[in-house]
Structure formats: C-alpha cells, structure tokens
Amino acid sequence: MAAIPQDIANTIVDPTAYADGDRIDQAFIHLRREAPLAVAHPEGFDPFWALTRHADIQAVERQNDLFHNGDRSATLTTIEGDRLVRQMTGGSPHLIKSLVQMDNPDHAAYRRLTQGAFLPQNLRGLDGRIREIAREFIDHMASFGSQCDFARDVAFLYPLRVIMELMGVPQSDEPFMLRLTQELFGSADKDLNRSHEEVGSSEKFAMDLQQTVADLEGYFGKVTADRRAHPRDDLCSLIANGQIDGQPLGYIETMGYYIIAATAGHDTTSNTTAGGLWALAENPEQFAKLKADPSLIPGHVEESIRWVTPVKHFMRTATADTEVAGEKIAKGDWLMLCYPSGNRDEAVFSDPFVYDIERTPNRHVAFGYGAHVCLGQHLGRMEMRILWEELLPRLKSIELNGTPERWAGSFVCGPKTVPIRYEMH
User: Fold this and answer.
1) N or C: which end of the chain has fewer CB within 10 A?
2) Domain of 304?
3) Is residue 421, in this structure, part of any structural domain at all?
C-alpha cells in the first residue's frame, strides 16, 4: 500500500490549503498519481483513507450499507474536536443530525418527506418567481455602476432569497441566516467565523459551532411552533408537521432538517455562482461564446459546479471488512471522499484544469452520487440557469478588478470576494 507523505496528509486537512486553490490541487495531483487510495495520518486526526479518484469515490457512494455516514462524524474532525462534540451531545459524533448524518432506513424515510418539493416537475412552477428574484439582484448589480464584489453583492444574496422564500422565512431574517451559515461553514476563516479570530484550540472551535447551532435551533424552534399552529404551503410547514411511521420528527432531526435546508440550500449555489463568474472573467473567450449562444448556459452551469466543487469532502465509515480498488479496508475504517480531486481526475476529464463550458460529458461528482446525491441539485441548477439567462443579455463586458479570494475551509468552501469591473446594458 502506498503511503501518503506527511506534508500532503497535513495539506488535505488544512482549511487554508483549500483557500489557496493551487496548493490543494498540487496535493491531489500527487495523490492521484502516486497514492490514489491510501491512508493519511495528519497530525491531530484519526487516520483515514483518502479517495482521490472519480471511480473510487463513486464505488463507495454506491454501497450505502457497506459505507455508512452516521457511525462516525460525516465530516473531517480532529480527535479533540470529536471528543468535545460527543461530550456536548451525550455521546453522538454529530452536533447536527441531518440527512447527511443518516443511514437507511432513516435516510430514505426522512428524505421522502421533502423529496417531492425538489423534483424538477414540481420546481417548474417556481420559474417565474425565481426569475423575478434574479432580475432584482441584477438590477442591484447595475446600481453599483461599473464595479462591485460579485460574491458579496449578488452571489451570496440571490440563492439565499430563493431558499428563504421556499421555506417561508421573512426577508428581514436573511442577514441573520447568511451570518449563521457563514459561521457554520466558514468556522475556520477569521473573516467569517463567530469570534473573527484565527482558530486556535479545538475547544474554542467546538464552542463557537455549538453557539451557532444553538442560535439556529432557537430560531427554528419558534418557526416549528408557528407552523404547527398555522401550517402554510412552504418547506418549514412540511418539516414541522412531517411524520415518520406515524410519529412526529424528533427534536434533533427536525432541527437538522431546517439547518441543512436553510444553510446548504443556498451556500453551495452561492459559491458556484460566484466561481462561475470568476471563471468567465478569467476566460474572455468562454464569456464571448456564452454571450453569442445562450444554449450553452446549462453547460456553463455544469462546468462551474465541477470547477468550484463547493463541498470538498464527506466521510464514510466501513461497516465490514471489504476491498476498494484492490485495497483492503477494515471494518470501522474512516474514508474521506475528496470531491475536488474526483472532479479533476485526468482519467475522466480531458484538460481538467481548463474551464470549458462545452465539456461533454461532464460527469462531475460535486453533488455526490447514489442515494446521498444532493436533494437540492435540481433547484441549484435551475437558480443558476435562470440567473445566467437574465444576466448575460445585460452584461456587455466583464473583467476582474483585483484578486478574488476563497474562504478557508476543508468541508464547504468557495469564493469569499470576486471584485469585478463591468459594463451593463
């Protein structure tokens, strides 16, 4: 079995490496070439298998009974962080219990509660309203004149408005929800985390996260009471009044459902939208091609999803001794599915470091694969497609107006700032 060099093991768990972009890309290039499925022993972490090839990631995601989400933390955590979370939760490795932390039969049952709302045929009726929201934020962009920060001024706000409307949350609560989402996913970034400090101790990190989760639970506790008394036609009512086997959802599962819908429901789309514009600003020939032929918009959406890959990993735990790609995995082993690496796999994507809106096929794994594939993938694609359909006819030119930055994060991460200069019709 090939060993993962210590410096590379430390890199793939380092939030700042994902902010760097090139540093993480180089680490994954090395692993795909030299040790595509091997054990990493980063300092302060339990050892885990790093899966860096597209085929191996799909093989594990296909076998849900053999590789569980919920037995250990479903996201990378330090030994000390895991101990603190278990102390806070009375033994559970999960501070939040959402679909991401569930296995069957729970996963299938809980997913069914809202699955219908996110099916393409049921989303079609939202096209008109989403288009209105897109135009509103494009007008907002135009109001800045010729320059803005596309990430902060447009991309972070537009998908947030869409999911908050679907959930039935008032617009006045959007800044609160954006702040808590960024605290949750940007906990390793001093510009976004709760204390606005470099993360020092695991204890501070865990305490901050616990406070953020407590604020979200406090908010959605009130929402639950309201929707049980006055149900409406919205996502919050579906969750508040949902039942599994004739019983209402448990408290922790209810809160987990709200939190994943309210946070993952906009943040990944925001990251991808910001990254898609960044890519067009850096590739003027792609922008010109897209302007000339709007039928390429869906291809641009898919390529931006592959390019950004906002969810950097999920963890799985082997439930039995098994083999993946000839390597012997033992029961209880922890596996890291490295999605950015899978989406740059030279065996699957020709010129993977080139942004190509005409890439076909584009079988990226950014939404996951198999039973745990992202519930909101169709909504995310639809929001991005509509935004580009509305923005491109109004955008005459675009270029970067400074150096964009990514936030630091090894779980969810994307552009933090995308300063641009532009002309609009």
Assistant:
1) C
2) 6-413
3) no
Report the C-alpha dihedral over residues 182, 198, 219, 312, rounded to 10 degrees.
Answer: 40
**Cis preceding linkage at 105, omega within 30:** yes
**Cβ atoms 365, 342 nearer than 8 A:** yes
CA distance 130 to 345: 34
pLDDT at residue 199 in the model: 65
Tell me the per-residue pLDDT of 147-187, one tens digit each, with 9 for 90 and over.
Answer: 999 999 999 999 999 999 999 999 999 999 989 888 888 77
Residue by residue, DSSP assigns 112-128 as HHHHGGGSHHHHGGGHH
Instruction: Tokens 């919205």: give the residue.
Output: 234
Number of domains in the chain: 1
Q: Is the peptide bond before 5 cis (omega within 30 degrees of 0)?
A: no
The answer to whether residue 116 sits within a structural domain is: yes
If you average pLDDT over every residue of the chain, what do you get?
94
Res. 203: pLDDT tops 80: no
CATH number of the domain where residue 74 is located: 1.10.630.10
CB 371 within 8 A of CB 60: no
pLDDT (tens digit per residue) in 383-404 = 999 999 999 999 999 999 999 9
Q: What is the predicted pLDDT for the residue at 201?
A: 64
Q: Where are the beta strands (DSSP E) in 235-333?
A: 243-244, 247-248, 313-318, 322-324, 327-329
Residue 317 lies in a domain: yes
Q: What whole-number distance in Å separates Cα of residue 403 and Cα of residue 420? A: 9
